[in-house]
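The material for today's practical consists of a large collection of protein records. A record pairs a protein's sequence with a compact description of its fold. Instead of coordinates, the fold is spelled out as a row of discrete tokens. We will come back to this pairing of sequence and fold again and again. Here is such a record, shown just as it appears in the course material.
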Amino acid sequence: MSTWTQLAGQVLNGYKLSEVEAIQILECPEDDLLQLLDGAFQIRRHYYGKKVKLNMIINTKSGLCPEDCGYCSQSSKSTAPIEKYRMMDREQIVAGAEKAHSLGANTYCIVASGRGPSKKEIETVTGAVKEIKEKYQMRICACLGILKPEQAAQLKEAGVDRYNHNINTSKEHHSEITTTHTYNDRTETVGRVKESGMSPCSGVIIGMGETNEDIVNMAFSLRELDADSIPVNFLHAIPGTKLEHAKPLTPSFCLKVLALFRFINPSKEIRISGGREVNLRSVQPLGLYAANSIFLGNYLTTAGQETTADHKMIEDMGFIVEHAHEQEPVC
């Protein structure tokens, strides 16, 4: 590769990376890492300037899941000692939105464990969303599992802007991670989200024993799915899960992954998500040169860093928080 900055310029002119070039990003020599991040930043800056989107999760239903996903502490196969509870009530979900708003989050993510939502759970979420939308100028993302077409329509009508359903890994590696649903089950839900008019959000988990070719395939698959938002999670290996002994990632490799997703999905929201604190560690701030979005606070069953530290990190790097009124309307 002549220079990563030159390749970034080509991408901004409409060029699409080959698989060979994508692999070269993941195999970038350590001495060239800052050049690679500079190239990714050229693309990120073109579409998003130096703004950072803040997202916040509420885990509205924990555990009690019939799926066998190897990474998840809420899985039916997990022995991790997590808190388990059924769907929160509407008031609790609305209170979570108030907290997210007070911390500057412009997207509030309503997440529930399980294969897919029940009729009652959909009603609880839609009722909460309508109330939140009356109170706050905030984007709402829901993540409730596999959706039926009529459920997607209900969520859209209630005011849900975006729906998250991650592909998590490549099609080829999927059966190594879970057997209780298929890769196509996931992509079909993303399709239903798009058909409903909600913005599709779909991402990955890196560090689950996949190859570099698998990671490249994930990035290309999300480009094909045309996901508007791409959460890039790095496995936080939890004792009691199938993947508790997974080989740890290096911070520099995580940065290469973020750069890869920016080069392949140049105009999309790339979000540094679960596991950033334990995998990127001291180089977390450098991830902002490729990604334009992060989660604030805690994740589903694992802790994040203090929200004040996130705000300080953004400020120290010379980036600025994007406020809700500045957001582009979702599709």
